[in-house]
Amino acid sequence: MSVFALALSVAVSPAGATTSVAYEKLKVAGVWVNVVTADLNDQSVRITPAVSRWGIGGSETFRSMIRRTRPAAAIDGTFFCTRTLRPTGDIVIDGQLIYRGYLGTAVAFNEDNYVKFVSCQNYKWTDYNSVLVAGPSLLLGGMMAVMPWNQGFRSGVHYTPRTRTALGLTSHNKFLMVTTQRAIYLSQLARVMKALGCVDAAGLDGGSSTALYYKGKLIKNPGRSMTNCLLIYDNPDSYEQHRSCFYPTARYSKLPNAGS
Questions:
Q1: Which of 15, 56, 132, 212 has fewest C-beta within 10 Å?
Q2: Close Cβ partners of 218 (under 8 Å, ≥ 6 residues apart)
Q3: Is residue 227 domain-resident?
Q4: pLDDT attached to residue 216
Q5: Domain for residue 213, yes or no?
């Protein structure tokens, strides 16, 4: 079986039934990666960001975030200032803009699991239920789009090898969450995402923030506490049950801003 076919394969239960969220460890474009694949054609799938139990400006261990929210899968989220613990990109949860950042590439979801990857600043998210602005971009419309400087990313972490994480979307509406096993350049990560069949892809916070969870298994535990992450549910009831945990402080009473 080809690497591409493996990347898009779906886990099969002993009874022969398939699941809409699956995990694979693969070697792609010369790089070992962990890949969680969610089938967005299944309307039972829900995807949302979540923030620390202390809200914006607070942090929480990845294990604790998983215990609170109980998703099928999760990955680390957007970059954040290690001093203020405020994210660098916009976060929309449950249709509400809870944080306005200042740069990045958005991964935006509406209620029908339509996903849009877009480089943006001061974008209005009224048509989307969940948004995580991270970046920089890796692929846009099937083309390599690694241009961190043009998108406002100045930190050296974007220009040196490090452990990477990424999100991607295939032409078959499969949503991928990917972490690498070793330190690589962004250009290598873009080639990995393209080899996995993605037409759009963007990076997330990596390095010591690299985190991945799948159905009871902590595949990659980050080296520090997290301010935000991205969750996937394969059961709408579980999503509804934990909805209040995604942003558990006094919700939306005041919109924080990266410049405040």
A1: 15
A2: 62, 63, 66, 212
A3: yes
A4: 96
A5: yes
